């Protein structure tokens, strides 16, 4: 079934992958933009800002979408508090606009590394880390606010993405993680992470238009300790071998399990492992 999709975040890293996939599936796309960068070809652009709740409500009412897709982040300044605030205030404004316009469904971007501490990769029913402290608590609070707010709509899907890699992400040859790798500041230790390639993440967002209500981990098949993935990342970006650490794993650095998306929702990543993704996608980017 084709849908009218109102996409916030169309000019971001994932937006540029999502719009072509939406259009290829026959959907109509209205892309919210502040005008700083052009929206991808084929989408109808509308000027606005999620921080302007009144203007956003008018834009959503005019677009009359079947679904709102929330792919907004504020990562350019490297400030977790700014990103958390966008998750709180931006999501609040989008849900209010949806409710006012009679939009029943939202697909929203979240993250898969905010689960409570544990010994194995987290599944969707694992609680979030609401007892976290410091900067992690700031990020957790933003995620909790986002996910609680979207639940106010009758239909919602929260996409808990793993660490994104590929062009425009932190994990590309010109990105900050590559800079850390070249400086010897990226340590191959025991902390576990889950990754997802940007195209695979975008494919999940489009498929989520038809998924049942709920949270979904969107990450590849191989949660891995830094001792495994950091050397592969260093090779992909042309950095020297990393320093190693035998320090105990941080309990919250547990990775996430994609079984639900894979086996119940039919999502199949083109890059089932960061091993192939790093070698093909990141090395090609450089």
| Overall 3D shape | globular
In the CATH hierarchy, the architecture is: 3-Layer(aba) Sandwich
Could you tell me the CATH topology label.
Rossmann fold
The whole-number mean of residue pLDDT values reads: 95
| Domains, number | 1
Structure in a nutshell:
The chain is α/β, with parallel strands linked by helices.
Commentary on this structure:
The chain has 286 residues and is of the alpha/beta class. It has a single domain, classed as NAD(P)-binding Rossmann-like Domain (Rossmann fold, 3-Layer(aba) Sandwich), CATH 3.40.50. Helices cover 37% and strands 17% of the residues. The strands form 3 sheets. Strands 3-2-1-4-5-6-10 form a 7-stranded parallel sheet, sandwiched between helices. Strand 4 (67-70), helix 3 and strand 5 form a beta-alpha-beta unit. Helix 2 crosses helix 3 (80-101) and helix 7 runs parallel beside helix 9 (274-285). The radius of gyration is 18 Å and the shape is globular. The mean pLDDT is 95.
Main features:
286 residues, Rossmann fold, alpha/beta, two-stranded parallel ribbon, 17% strand
Would you spell out the secondary-structure blueprint of this structure?
Blueprint: E1 4-8, H1 15-24, E2 28-33, E3 44-47, H2 53-63, E4 67-70, H3 80-101, E5 105-111, H4 134-150, E6 155-161, E7 163-165, H5 176-182, E8 192-193, E9 195-197, H6 198-207, E10 214-218, E11 224-225, H7 226-237, H8 259-264, H9 274-285
Parallel strand pairs: 1-2, 1-4, 2-3, 4-5, 5-6, 6-10, 7-9
Antiparallel strand pairs: 8-11
Helix pairs in contact: 1-6, 2-3, 3-4, 7-9
């Amino acid at each position: 079934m084709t849908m009218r999709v109102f996409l916030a975040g169309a000019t971001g890293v994932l937006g540029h992958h999502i719009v072509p996939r939406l259009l290829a599936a026959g959907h109509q796309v209205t892309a919210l933009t502040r005008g700083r960068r052009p929206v991808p070809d084929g989408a109808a652009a509308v000027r606005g800002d999620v921080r302007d709740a009144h203007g956003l409500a008018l834009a959503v009412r005019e677009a009359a979408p079947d679904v709102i897709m929330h792919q907004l982040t504020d990562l350019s300044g490297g400030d977790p508090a700014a990103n958390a605030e966008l998750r709180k205030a931006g999501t609040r404004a989008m849900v209010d606009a949806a409710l006012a316009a009679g939009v029943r469904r939202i697909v929203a971007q979240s993250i898969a590394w905010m689960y409570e501490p544990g010994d194995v990769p987290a599944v969707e029913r694992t609680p979030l880390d609401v007892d976290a402290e410091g900067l992690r608590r700031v990020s957790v609070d933003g995620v909790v606010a986002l996910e609680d707010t979207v639940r106010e709509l009758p239909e919602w899907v929260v996409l808990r993405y793993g660490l994104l890699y590929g062009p425009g992400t932190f994990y590309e040859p010109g990105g900050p993680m590559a800079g850390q790798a070249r400086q010897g500041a990226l340590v191959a230790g025991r902390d576990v992470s889950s990754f997802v390639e940007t195209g695979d993440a975008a494919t999940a967002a489009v498929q989520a238009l038809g998924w049942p209500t709920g949270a979904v981990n969107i990450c590849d098949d191989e949660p891995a300790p830094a001792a495994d993935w950091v050397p592969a990342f260093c090779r992909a970006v042309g950095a020297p071998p990393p320093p190693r650490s035998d320090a105990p794993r941080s309990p919250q650095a547990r990775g996430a399990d994609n079984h639900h998306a894979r086996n119940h929702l039919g999502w199949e990543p083109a890059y089932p492992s960061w091993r192939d993704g790093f070698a093909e996608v990141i090395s090609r980017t450089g």
